[in-house]
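Run: sequence + ribose-5-phosphate -> complex structure.
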Amino acid sequence: MIGRLTTAVEFAGEEASPWGALKLIAGSANPELAARISETIDVPLTDPRLRHFPDGEINVKIEDSMRGHDVFVIQPTSPPVNEHLMELFIILDALRRASAGRVTAVIPYYGYARKERKTQPREPISAKLVANFITLAGADRLLLLDLHAEAIEGFFDVPTDHLSPHRIVADHLRTLNLQRLTVVAPDAGGGRRAEAVANQLQAPIAFGYKRRSGDDEVEVIAVSGDVKDRDCVIVEDIITTGGTISKLAQSLHKQGARRVLVAATHPVLTGDAVQRLKNADIEHVIVTDSIPIAPEKLGPPLTVLSVAPLLAEAIVRVHENRSVSELFR
Ligand code: R5P
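>> structure
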């Protein structure tokens, strides 16, 4: 299910903007989301005419004039991450060379976000490197959604707006007739995210403690908080292999949770992640359309909520030089 698709966003038109005309361009990462944003604000998508040379190199040729315009480039850097990043860099470069007035990179999912610090000697901080490349390529500002770590915002020296889908998620959870609700953070790092949803729903929080023994091997060591006989909603940013969520769901069931649900923003869902979620007896897995989901993975237990109206509203506000933080109130 994609929710809130038809919510139109009030767009006063170019007179309300200190910039040139609002232009939307999308890379190939999530054309459906880009189309929903375009439909919501009634601004057509400019085709960047992305092409691949026979050797795999990417080329772009923007046919329309971008001179002086306020351009928003929609491109989550989801898998294949490197390909989508390179597309983004090349589109940004083309726009800068086309004398665009201002360019905003709209990145609903930020690849490499989980490498935002060194945990061992001689490791990279890839999330910072990616931030450097994005601004070097030509982004004047960023519109981001539920970053794995808030610190990534600080990796940019240009303005960033960091949106949260938690009001959309909380509104949906309210429709599910949950009783004696506990919001569960999978680890301490997810505490603020879980707190945002818990505050909306006036629910207590529990925490999981996990240990990773490999890229797709997770062990949940403990859960602290009130979960017995309660409806537990795990709030997560990313589901990749489904390892974290399925292990945590099993622990919650063992500790007597009445129902287990998941709300996760970015459905990366590699390999047999969906099967793992099914095996873990999770009633609903609520995700967003920040990343496209392969058709064979759609259906229960997944429910997909659209972030297009949220991103559309933020784009219009940035264009009209209006507050974006008001969106959170
Ligand atoms: C990492 O700390 C993230 O917040 C997620 O917990 C992680 O990306 C989930 O990955 P997986 O689904 O592979 O366990």
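>> summary
Confidence is low (pLDDT under 50) at residues 1-6. The pocket of ribose-5-phosphate is lined by residues 114, 148, 186, 189-190, 216, 218, 236-244 (CB under 6 Å).
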